[in-house]
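Schema walk-through. Below, the input block comes first and the output block second. Nothing else is stored per chain. Lengths vary across the set, and this one has 63 residues.
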Amino acid sequence: MFWDGFLGVTDSSGSPVNDYSLSSDSGFDYRHSAVPVPEPSAPLMMLVGLGLVGGLARRRLLG
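--- output ---
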């Protein structure tokens, strides 16, 4: 099963519905889906890039 959440609820004419309820028999509220989390590689790539920039700056200072 794959749950990607939903962007909104509309009626048959396409008008947005603001007050709705979407829950299971167990009581789980499906309106609040999980917040996307950045992949671990994104911060790692940023650290590698900062390390490269710092290394180049140090190399330039030392000649």
